[in-house]
């Protein structure tokens, strides 16, 4: 009896303690705004890149006395956690993320404008374009990412001159499916976008300031219909180059097994190909028309929280420390994607893989971050998948344009 | 085991005091922190619960409470609070663009409405202080002359400023702030906007990081009295009309807005808005069909196998049983992913190997996808039913069957009239629980096909195999326009449906129990 009583007491103590710790830990996660200390900064960083930022954080603490706490987060949850926690005052001062979150972040009012000042001219143009939303800069860019064609040089020694040439080269090597690209039941417009732009049909036009203009939907331009027709001819009822049954894993396996010579994918998959012992070359995306095939550029960077109590220190840390060449290079080493700062990008381009992606990236266009893009994504992939699977291209594309227009207005 | 005595031993008393002491220390700390955050309600709640816990464990009586308290506290924190909060969110407009308080929305709108004056240079500045009032000591990058100004006074020239590397660092009458002091007064500096001149169209200087300032013009003005936002460039006035955002006369909304309670709006939307009602109705029908069919088929298959294995003439029952348990022993989410791969139209094992390269659209045809979902769910669920039925069958006394046979009943009627009712009365609670589980079988739908194929006729991102729960998930957590309010309203509706079904079925099973008597 005594024993059980004590046991119950113990459990009770743990229960009560943990309940209170739960309520208390919210408070202790606060980012010191005591006023009499130099304060501290909380930075959410994706787990792979924590080590790359340690040096900058320590240097900053040494110089200014401001503690920088790097919190390792899963990249997949940073955006949602940021949106949910900033309004409660519990979020970080700075969060790492991608530029296409900007529409959502600004709509929710959780991100503060960031003045890059004169340092803005030191970044790649596409990086600054991406970091700017409706004329205001919100992000300190650190890397630019785009897709390109990975070529198995053992199967195809030469780069392809055009889309048809690529298929022909693969077939000459005796491959049934020479080229693979990630699709899926709901399509994958991100990976098809270079082909769409080759037909002269971007999603949105741009206004005078270079920002995407939601009122100017270019999807329905003549080029869009030409692209739809071409997509159908390469789909299930045509050549079968595109197949919605090929998802990311199947595309990867085909390339690693050597049953496909060309793979349209991003820098994140290069490591796996090299590990599989494949001699990889990075080629521009072969265009099905004469015009260049422009992929989307995704720009990664750091956001400043709208509710940060330490905006001055945070801005200083972002612009003057995270924007330095050393930090941009160490972030590059952690992630192997092209740095956003010109000087760092040049250094990184000594690697042929990075140089290959950078060449393709020179043609890339920043992915639109405007909220209207959400309405596009919603219908875009499904429509493309339907066309690949043999639906009438013109009618399907018509419906896509109508749906998107209805959703935006 | 010692008999219970009124007098506790010294040791147990000490342990009790130490443990309670730890609890009290932690909760007093928590209360302090909460008070510092001005969260009085939570602080008082924490202290009240602590007092209650102390009273319960220091008292000699209240024995049941000593056992129940920890569980009740957990129940309150992890269940009741979550339920109430979901209920509350269902009555708000919480979602994309309505994420925080009005105050936050206003400050965010004002901050993002700042536009740097075109072609204006970077001004090197020093933050200075005069009797607690902050100012900016600005060096004109073109002339190299120093100016000073505050929130209320536009920039004016300072003749006897001290310079360091071409930057004015101090001026008589002003104290220059060190970087640490600047950081300590971040809030004031963020609010510091020094007018460039008497003309408001010249903009104001603001310093984002304390050493450089830029000239900004604001495009939005907030009028606190009238509760309106005015766009200074277009003259459009945005008013708070109680919809959780500033709205112009033409219906244009400023984003971000803020969170407000909207009463039953979300429920009304779910039932009246055409684009939501349509999917809601057919998703509800499919959810019922899926849950009922899954339970029935799993139960039928499980029962059939259980009866087969009871037959004394079966050989190698042990090995069959082992095989049957496999789907149950294997982690379900892995099995579902494997099924997803096997059902791939062009590369899946089923089409490639079993159907000799046919292209059967297992997961991409709306009707076949439904069949596939049920098929996979039955594969996952029947071993459990098999186990339950095996146990339940063994509990039915053999004499009953013998007696019935003596009375002239044959196999089928013995089963239908004697075994099945007895079986149902013991398994009914399991079947109801299984129904409730399958009603909300998010894992299967999400991992197998993500609710696909997509229904392209609605604006909601719903697919043909989506259950209510995965529809809620998609409304709340996918895409760029989240609507937590609507999703919470949906989950309240789901809760009500499941609760009603459970209550009705459990009262019905009482009728079954009558048979056993």
Largest interface chains and counts: A-B, 86 and 89 residues
Distance between the termini of chain B: 40 Å
Task: Give the helix/strand class of chain B.
Answer: alpha+beta
Q: What's the tally of helices of chain B?
A: 17
Oligomer: heterodimer
Largest sheet of chain A: 8 strands, mixed
Mean pLDDT figure of chain A: 87
Number of strands of chain A: 16
Which structural class should the secondary elements of chain A be placed in? alpha/beta
Could you tell me the radius of gyration of chain A in angstroms?
24 Å
The portion of residues forming beta strands of chain A comes to 15-25%
Poorly predicted tracts of residues of chain B: none
The gyration radius over C-alpha positions of chain B equals 35 Å
Which spans of chain A have pLDDT < 50 for at least 5 consecutive residues? Answer: 1-36
First and last CA, distance of chain A: 71 Å
Global morphology of chain B: elongated
Description:
The complex is a heterodimer of chains A (409) and B (517). In chain A, strands 1, 2, 3, 4, 7, 14, 15 and 16 form an eight-stranded mixed sheet that branches. In chain A, α2 packs antiparallel against α12, α12 crosses α13 and α15 runs antiparallel to α16. With 409 residues, chain A is an alpha/beta fold. The N terminus of chain A is likely disordered. Chain A starts with a helix and ends with a helix. Chain A is 45% helix and 18% strand. Chain B starts with 9 loop residues before the first helix and ends with a helix. By secondary structure, chain B is of the alpha+beta class. The radius of gyration of chain B is 35 Å and the shape is elongated. In chain B, strands 1, 2, 3, 4, 5, 8, 9, 10 and 11 form a nine-stranded antiparallel sheet that branches. Chain B has a four-stranded antiparallel sheet with strand order 12-13-14-15, covered by helices on one side. Chain B contains 17 helices and 15 strands. Classes of the chains: A alpha/beta (409), B alpha+beta (517). At the A-B interface, α1, α3, α4, α11 and α15 of A face α1, α2, α3, α4 and β1 of B.
């Amino acid at each position: 009896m005594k024993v059980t009583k004590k046991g119950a007491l113990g459990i009770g103590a743990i229960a009560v303690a943990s309940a209170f710790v739960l309520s208390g830990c919210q408070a202790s996660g606060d980012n010191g705004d005591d006023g009499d200390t130099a304060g501290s900064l909380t930075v959410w960083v994706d787990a792979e890149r924590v080590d790359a930022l340690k040096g900058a954080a320590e240097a900053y603490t040494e110089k200014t006395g401001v503690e920088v706490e790097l919190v390792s987060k899963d990249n997949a949850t940073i955006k949602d956690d940021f949106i949910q926690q900033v309004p409660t005052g519990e979020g970080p001062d700075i969060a790492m993320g991608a530029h296409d979150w900007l529409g959502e972040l600004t709509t929710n009012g959780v991100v503060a404008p960031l003045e890059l000042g004169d340092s803005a001219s030191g970044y790649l143009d596409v990086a600054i374009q991406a970091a700017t939303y409706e004329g205001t800069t919100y992000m300190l860019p650190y890397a630019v990412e785009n897709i390109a064609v990975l070529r198995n040089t053992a199967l195809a020694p030469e780069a392809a001159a055009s889309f048809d040439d690529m298929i022909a080269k693969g077939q000459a090597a005796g491959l049934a499916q020479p080229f693979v690209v990630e699709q899926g039941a709901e399509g994958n417009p991100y990976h098809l976008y270079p082909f769409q732009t080759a037909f002269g049909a971007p999603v949105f036009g741009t206004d005078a300031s270079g920002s995407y203009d939601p009122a100017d939907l270019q999807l329905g331009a003549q080029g869009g219909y030409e692209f739809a027709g071409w997509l159908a001819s390469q789909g299930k009822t045509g050549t079968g180059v595109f197949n919605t049954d090929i998802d990311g894993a199947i595309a990867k396996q085909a390339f690693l097994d050597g049953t496909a010579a060309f793979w349209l994918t991003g820098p994140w998959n290069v490591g796996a190909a090299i590990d599989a012992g494949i001699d990889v070359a990075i080629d521009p995306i072969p265009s099905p028309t004469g015009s260049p095939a422009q992929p989307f550029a995704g720009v990664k960077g750091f956001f400043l929280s709208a509710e940060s109590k330490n905006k001055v220190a945070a801005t200083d840390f972002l612009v003057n420390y995270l924007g330095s060449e050393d930090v941009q290079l160490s972030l590059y080493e952690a992630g192997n994607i092209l740095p956003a700062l010109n000087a760092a990008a040049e250094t990184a381009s000594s690697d042929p893989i990075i140089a290959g992606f950078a060449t393709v990236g020179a043609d890339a266009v920043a992915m639109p971050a405007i909220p209207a893009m959400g309405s596009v994504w919603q219908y875009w992939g499904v429509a493309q998948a339907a066309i690949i699977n043999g639906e009438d291209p013109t009618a399907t594309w018509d419906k896509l344009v109508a749906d998107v227009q209805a959703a935006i207005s | 085991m010692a008999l219970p005595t009124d007098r506790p031993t010294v040791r147990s008393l000490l342990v009790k005091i130490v443990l309670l002491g730890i609890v009290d220390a932690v909760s007093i700390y928590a209360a302090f922190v909460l008070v510092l955050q001005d969260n009085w309600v939570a602080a008082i709640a924490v202290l009240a619960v602590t007092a209650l816990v102390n009273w319960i464990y220091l008292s000699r009586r209240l024995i049941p409470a000593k056992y129940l308290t920890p569980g009740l506290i957990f129940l309150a924190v992890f269940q009741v609070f979550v339920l109430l909060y979901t209920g509350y969110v269902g009555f708000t407009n919480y979602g994309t663009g309505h994420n925080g308080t009005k105050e936050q929305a206003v400050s965010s709108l004002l901050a993002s409405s700042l536009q740097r004056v075109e072609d204006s240079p970077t001004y090197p500045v020093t933050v200075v202080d005069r009797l607690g009032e902050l100012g900016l000591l600005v060096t004109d990058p073109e002339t190299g002359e120093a100016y000073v100004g505050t929130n209320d006074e536009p920039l004016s020239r300072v003749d006897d400023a001290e310079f360091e590397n071409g930057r004015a660092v101090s001026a008589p009458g002003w104290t220059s702030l060190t970087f640490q002091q600047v950081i300590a007064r971040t809030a004031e500096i963020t609010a510091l906007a020094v007018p460039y001149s008497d003309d408001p169209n010249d903009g104001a200087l603001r310093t984002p990081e304390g050493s450089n300032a830029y000239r900004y013009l604001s495009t939005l003005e907030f009028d606190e009295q009238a509760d309106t936002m005015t766009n200074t460039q277009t003259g459009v006035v945005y008013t708070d009309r109680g919809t959780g955002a500033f709205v112009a006369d033409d219906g244009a909304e400023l984003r971000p807005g803020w969170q407000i309670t909207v009463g039953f709006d979300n429920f009304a939307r779910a039932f009246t808005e055409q684009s939501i009602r349509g999917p809601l109705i057919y998703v509800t029908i499919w959810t019922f069909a899926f849950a009922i069919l899954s339970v029935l088929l799993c139960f039928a298959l499980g029962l059939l196998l259980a009866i087969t294995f009871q037959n004394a003439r079966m050989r190698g029952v042990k090995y069959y049983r082992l095989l049957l348990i496999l789907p149950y022993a294997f982690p379900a989410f892995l099995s579902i992913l494997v099924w997803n791969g096997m059902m791939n139209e062009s590369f899946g094992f089923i089409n490639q190997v079993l159907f000799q390269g046919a292209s059967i659209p297992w997961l991409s045809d709306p009707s076949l996808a439904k069949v596939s979902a049920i098929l996979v769910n039955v594969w996952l669920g029947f071993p459990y039913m098999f186990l339950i039925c095996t146990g339940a069958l063994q509990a039915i006394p053999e004499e009953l069957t013998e007696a019935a046979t003596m009375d002239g009943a044959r196999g089928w009627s013995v089963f239908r009239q004697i075994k099945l009712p007895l079986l149902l009365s013991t398994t009914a609670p399991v079947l109801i629980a299984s129904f409730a589980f399958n009603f909300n079988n998010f894992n299967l739908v999400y991992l197998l096909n993500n609710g696909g194929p997509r229904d392209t006729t609605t604006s909601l991102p719903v697919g043909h195999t989506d259950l209510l729960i995965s529809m809620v998930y998609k409304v709340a957590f996918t895409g760029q326009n989240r609507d937590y309010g609507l999703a919470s309203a949906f989950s309240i509706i789901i809760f009500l449906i499941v609760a009603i079904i459970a209550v009705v079925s459990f009262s019905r099973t009482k009728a079954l129990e009558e048979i056993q008597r």
